[in-house]
Amino acid sequence: MRKFSVWALCILFFGAACSSERNTFTNRTFHNVTAHYNAYYLANLKLEEVKTEVFNNYKEDYTQILPVFIPYDSATIQANAEKLQSSRELASKAIEWHKISRWVDDSYYILGTLDYLQSHFDDAQNTYKYINVNSKDDDLRQQTLITLLKLYVDLGEFENANFTIDYLSKESGISNENRYELYRTLAYYYEKRGDKSGVIGALDMALENAQNNKEKSRINFILAQRYQREGLDALAYDYYNKALDGNPPYERSFYAQLYAQQVAELNASKDLKKVRKYYDDLYEDPKNKDLKDVVIYERALFEEKQGDVDQTLQLLHQAAKEPGSNPRVKGYIYQKLAEINLAEFKDYRATKYYLDSALTFINEQDPVALQISTQKESLDQFVFHYERISKDDSLLAMAALSPEEQELLAEQFIKSEEERLIAQAKAKEEPRNASIFDNLLAFGGDKGSGSSFYFDNGVAMQQGAIEFRRTWGNRPLQDNWRRSAASFQSVTPTIPEPVSEDSTSTEENNPLAQLPTKEALLSEIPDSPEKIELLNSELEESYFELGKLLYFDLKEIELSIENLETLVSAYPESSRKPEAYYLLYLAQKDLGGNSQQYVSRLNREYPESQYTFSVNNPEASSGNLAYLESSKRYEQAYNYYYEGQYQAAKDIIKTTLEEYPLTRNTERILLLDIMLTGKTESRARYRERLEAYIENSKDQDLVELARNMLNPLLSSEELATLQAEENNEADSTLVENTENEQSEESNADPDSPYTYSEAATHIFVLAMNPSQAEEVKNLLGDLESFHAKNFAKSRLRTGEMNMNRENAIYIISPFSNAEKAKEYYQVFESDFTSEGLPEEVKKNAFVISIENFQALNKTKNLEEYRTFFRSAYK
Hints:
Signal peptide: 1-19
Strand order of the largest sheet: 2-3-1-4
InterPro entries: TPR-like_helical_dom_sf (IPR011990)
Region (Disordered): 492-511, 727-754
Protein name: Gliding motility protein
Number of helices: 43
Keywords: Signal
């Protein structure tokens, strides 16, 4: 009975404890333990497993600046959908079954993170906001806000991100772990805004709070890369060495050592032999067998700096063949080959094919791939028309010959190809000087063309294969008895030809596959009037399109003239002739040549053509007819843009600007073209074109629209300054009305270019020379702390710029009026400190209105303004 009673009491005790309705100590303890070590623990475990898999699947590209956060791979997320769903169910159970446990809010955080990973962004935001409002766990709330900040940055919602940053700046007692994540997320925020200084400052602060040595190593590497890009080699060298701590992956260690050596010695060394030996040693190191392409690629970049183009190209070709662990490196190698062939040789065909190769190694969603694809559009068209002209022209020339002459030419072509293959084999077999960049055989024997063993002699094998083909034709490899038996069977070869995705390896293994048969060559020659007419129509189109492309896109005016002249002389009845004359007129005008000859031809041959009207009336392009036509085309292009058919819209804009370059629609069309740039090209290129448009356009409505497009691309301080300028412009009437009163208040020199305005928006400026700026290591971080402590509600932003070679300036903005700016100045003067900040720099700080700052930026005379500042503000 006693045992039964004990068991009964235990059952009653745990049964009562299981209830989530009664909030007693026993119930809370039971639910806390059960929720933590059962549902919540398992849900979090599955979530972390997916995150770890994302991290492990990500391939770092150390040749580029590493991202602050490793991006989530949607493919990995989708592949783990079942595991994530299990985590969601467990977290939901922890909330539903253990309502009174202290792990409910943590489970909500898991649900929000699951929504974040699976791109349910609205649900994730709502969950995070719920936790922030309802949770009593400050540590969890702060962790949630930091994750919410990262989500806002991902979505490009920078205004919401700014509010979240302000909110977090008011939080106290943030743990080291959360502080680390906060500064890392701030670095991500600055990275997305293109604020290089902000990224460096935030990562420096993150380092101070990092606990994990591997994470420290990665941040140190990022900082080193950024300092190297800014030309601060000494800082880069220190951080690359720090990146070697914490047992980093071997590949990161390799790059850290390689780049540290570059910034320390290689870039400055005049001992070229020493530098080359360094690369040789890296290449020979067995540990770098999967990084040989990187070693040779870096060596190629070094030789490029020495101006040795031939050696650079040779090394780049070698690098493309070497093994490597990162396919993207191959993409960069081919991109570099394309760049050199375009810049040095204007070889558009080679450039196009190298860019094609680059795209096979770079993900199509990568910004680099998008940039290459855009660059390649004109080159694709060039190569298509160039190769079609070469082929069709040759075929038409052969069609004019007799059958005997055609056969003779085909035989001569095949013979020349055979000789070329033998020459290639000889080149491969020629003995070379020992070098790490040669592929040596394991036994190091001389395998030159003089080798006595047949199968070691490439030239002998090539000649033998060609001789066999001449005598017996293109027979499959098989024994005599099989060949005899085959005469009673199908003539189809019994051994299939090898199939390989790598065409290069196939051709190397079977060089005869490159040789066409005489029958194949002869079959391509047109043998009927219809086929000849088809080739002529293709030639006519290609000469015209190539000439047009060379003039407008590639700016090769002389080559454009050559192709267009060929068109008008070879195809005098072409319907494209009037436009060709017009293009020749424009080209000769650009070169300062005889453009009037084409005016005469147009008037004589095509008096009613629109192109004749254009050359006779140069201002006609701005007339009503041109305006109406360009309006129609603008509408078509805009509709295509709205539907997402960007290439079609670009084509219409291109032809419209070519045919009607100066109409009242031109500025609208140009802005639409810039909008297309924002969809198809890099962010930097989009911003560059918008800024140029704002500077040059005369239509204020369009300028305002362009400014609205530009704002999301600006950094925080740039945006604040721009907003301040706009506020100042809006208050210009008030400023004018009170000008006399303000001038009476000011004791400044009446000849000064500066005027005091109490109501104008102001900024605070800290100016120093480059050496002083280098000494102040954590100025931005200290300013943020100073603002959080003294001006938490002011939403101040900090930025930096170079006013001239002698002065770098740090700007704090905005202050709505002079009184607010002077209040900041006084607190700054008395309370602000930063390690390495000279007292002289602090003493010479000043506040300035936006209008006066524009005047100062023109004169660059800081002392003149300081004189005004002392008389007007103190």
